[in-house]
Amino acid sequence: MTGSGSRSGTGSAGAGTAGTGAAPSYRTMTAFTAADEERQRGVRRMKLTATGMLLFVALVYVLAQVAEHAGAGAWAGYVSAAAEAGMVGALADWFAVTALFRHPLGLPIPHTAIIPTKKDALGVSLGEFVGENFLSEDVVRQRLRAVGIGSRLGAWLAEPEHADRVTAELATALRGALTVLRDSDVRAVVGEAITRRADAREIAPGLGKMLEKVVGDGGHRRFVDLVVSRAHDWLLLHRDEVMGAVEGGSPGWTPRFVDRKVGERVYKELLRFITEMRDMPSHPARGALDRFLTDFASDLQSDTETRARIERLKGEVLARDEVQDLIASTWTAVRSMIVSAAEDERSELRLRVRAALLSLGARMAREPKVQDKVDSWVEGAAVHVVTTYRREITSLITDTVASWDPEHTTRKIEAHIGRDLQFIRINGTVVGSLAGLLIYTVSQALGA
Questions:
Q1: pLDDT digits 0-9 by tens, 396-408
Q2: What is the tally of structural domains in the chain?
Q3: d(CA 329, CA 153)
């Protein structure tokens, strides 16, 4: 019986696809492994055991019938009834178990060979079952809330070795992401973003406000002190050059000694002016410079012509190749700095990330508000995924099952659950025999 049923399984699978016009393209569920072969051998042993019990009760039935007709006594009737019911139970359960995987005796009986012929429908039902009972919003929220992800994750992160592990994994991921990115593409994007943002925003008012605050706070005076001091030192070192420039600009008809005297006079007055400006914080020139800067700050904010000139100057500066190269090279510098910090276990970046993880873990472990917030985030993200992609998730199940080869799938499933199913046949034999004995006993008692 077993052999004929096995041979018919292939035919039923083929019959299930016949008439479609073209044979469907199936893929193997998974390779039939050595463990599967061992399971299949166990199924065969249990089949032999169940079939042996059927043959045993059949033999008992024959012997009991012979004994009853030979006048062996009333006991023969009881044994015959029990054996007869045991045969019926064994045959019924054999039919039921076999019908799951193939047509019994190769006969195309309706509602048999359920797995190979109803595989796709079973896949759809399985997908719907998963979608309704595992991917619903209420179920996801209830299960995640019961887990208490916020408190568990907090307690886990609060351990230094776990924070070190997460920090190392983040550093590895960061290095990997920076390695995958093409520098040329990123530089182009960064350059375009900076240029577009600079073009889209007028800078004159902002510069005016900043300059107004700097002048109001006196922050420019140190810069003026530096410039004046450097100018004084430069004049001392370049006396002849200054005098030569004055003499070179004098008319050609003036005597040379006159030009010399004029140059010396100009140099001395210029040096005196710079020296006084350096040494006198209240020098009139400093006050004039303050007023100039104040007026310029106001013009930057309110004068249309000044603001337009600044915008034109900004455009000219941004358009220069040197500036674009500088902007593009910013990514290279930033990337190198980040990679170096990620690789160094004692870098400020990794130390700060580790400290932040430990602090976050401690707060999550002890503060219910933080736990609730984390739980809400996780629940919201999970609910969004299952509600948005539930159809895609369940279709993964149905499409995968539909792509399996029916015959191979049947063998695979039978190898995994067939041994337990054979116990149904054994139990059917035993329970049938007991039921038959009970029914016969009650009948005899009522008949008496």
A1: 888 877 877 778 7
A2: 2
A3: 40
